[in-house]
């Protein structure tokens, strides 16, 4: 009965193969996300959401296997909105990291500073990174490489570990060589500012992440439809 047992083996491996293919397909489907939909019920980020759509950066982000978006609330998006179209796309793309990060994951990194690839890394390896740095007090900052890290991580807006996260930062992060017209009187050198005036109460970044993960595990549903 050698023949039939090898037939059985062949059938069994065919079944295993089919299961593997199905598993791969469904995990690909699960990884799908829609960043605009994730921002849809967050009116505070309407302007940034519009910019993501207008520049088609949202479409590019949705194609990624994993992504982390750094967003600013409407009152801080004015400078971005004023950028000419050719500068707007790179500026918005600079806010999309091509891996999943949340404060816990950032905190777990061995180094306190790292250059994290953005969507721009597809076209420019050197320009396509943001500098992430954790300060002595544990607060997390982002900035263009070579420029001071001035955009402080404020909170997790939405997250679906470990495929996509959206985090609020305290100011836009522009690629090196691009700058916004800054209102007079605010033309600081962009140092890491200790002042948290005007910001929401600063929770520990890891606490925010734990909270966001909890929410995500309850609310998480694959982008259906
Ligand atoms: C990243 O930012 C930190 C803090 O501002 C700075 O010390 C470091 O030199 C920066 N790294 C790069 C590559 O720009």
From TrEMBL:
Region feature Disordered, mapped onto this chain: 185-225
Keyword presence, Signal: yes
GO cellular component terms attached to this protein's record: plasma membrane
Stored InterPro entries: FAS1_dom_sf, Plant_FLA
Highest taxon of source: Eukaryota
Keywords: Signal
Signal peptide region: 1-31
Entry annotated with the keyword Protein biosynthesis: no
PANTHER family: FASCICLIN-LIKE ARABINOGALACTAN PROTEIN, OS02G0461000 PROTEIN
Protein name (Swiss-Prot/TrEMBL): FAS1 domain-containing protein
């Amino acid at each position: 009965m050698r023949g039939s047992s090898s037939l059985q083996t062949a059938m069994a491996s065919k079944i295993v193969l089919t299961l593997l293919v199905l598993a791969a397909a469904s995990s690909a489907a699960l990884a799908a996300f829609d960043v605009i939909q994730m921002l849809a019920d967050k009116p505070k980020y309407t302007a940034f959401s519009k910019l993501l759509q207008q520049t088609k950066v949202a479409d590019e982000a949705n194609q990624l296997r994993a992504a982390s978006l750094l967003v600013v609330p409407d009152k801080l998006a004015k400078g971005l909105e004023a950028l000419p179209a050719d500068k707007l796309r790179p500026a918005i793309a600079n806010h999309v990291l091509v891996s999943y990060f949340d404060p816990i994951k950032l905190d777990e990194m061995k180094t306190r500073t790292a250059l994290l690839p953005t969507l721009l890394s597809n076209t420019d390896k050197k320009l396509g990174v943001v500098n992430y740095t954790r300060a002595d007090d544990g607060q997390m900052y982002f900035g263009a490489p070579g420029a001071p890290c001035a955009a402080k991580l404020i909170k997790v807006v939405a997250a679906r570990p470990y495929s996509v996260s959206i985090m609020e930062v305290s100011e836009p992060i522009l690629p090196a060589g691009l700058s916004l017209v800054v209102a007079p009187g605010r033309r600081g050198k962009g140092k890491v500012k200790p002042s948290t005036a005007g910001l929401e109460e600063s929770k520990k970044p890891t606490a925010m992440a734990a909270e966001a993960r909890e929410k995500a595990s309850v609310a998480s549903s694959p982008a259906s439809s």
